[in-house]
Amino acid sequence: MENKFILDACCGGRMFWKNKNHPNVIYQDIRKDILPLKEKYGINFSVEPDIIGDFRKMVFPDKSFKMVIFDPPHLMLNKTAWMAKKYGTIKNTDYKADIKKGFRECWRVLDDFGTLVFKWNNQSVALEKIKPFFPDEPLIFNKIGTKGKFTYWFVFMKIPKENIK
């Protein structure tokens, strides 16, 4: 854990990371999977976390990280679909309970004055169904997309109550 002060709580294939092997990041996912999809889909893809772990119940002590990335599965797909294999699925899950637990855990392992980056896509589940589980008011918000399909990015900071004026 030395010099590992950033956590990607459900890293998948580390898709949006510029450096997919950043030395200060712990990449966690609930699974490890090599998906040789080259013949069928023209891609190879792997989910190779540093730590196999569940974002709903993490093994890290309280306040372990300065930054936490939370990009949980957000699509309702059959488990056999290649996108479900690539990104995960919330089909046949209690996704609301999972997201609530995930936010609680991400906030727990985030240090004071640390940042939580959250990504959500509304293709399967509207953002309004997820907002009640936010740990705090986001400081930064961005919405990308068209025709009703959007990816949302939020940045939160864990500011101790005594420092809020």
Task: Outline the structure in words.
With 165 residues, the chain is α/β, with parallel strands linked by helices. The protein has one domain: Vaccinia Virus protein VP39 (Rossmann fold). It has 3 helices and 9 strands; from the N terminus they run βββαβββααβββ. The strands form 2 sheets. It has a 7-stranded mixed sheet with strand order 5-2-1-6-7-9-8. β8 and β9 form a beta hairpin. The N and C termini lie far apart (34 Å). The mean pLDDT is 91.
Give the number of helices: 3
- What is the share of helical residues? 10-25%
Annotation, overall tally of beta strands: 9
Radius of gyration: 16 Å
Question: Which CATH class?
Answer: Alpha Beta
Blueprint of the fold:
Blueprint: E1 6-8, E2 25-29, E3 33-37, H1 38-41, E4 43-47, E5 51-52, E6 65-70, H2 82-87, H3 95-109, E7 110-121, E8 140-146, E9 149-157
Parallel strand pairs: 1-2, 1-6, 2-5, 6-7
Antiparallel strand pairs: 3-4, 7-9, 8-9
Features:
single chain, 165 residues, alpha/beta, Rossmann fold, seven-stranded mixed beta sheet, two-stranded antiparallel ribbon, 3 helices, 9 strands, 15% helix
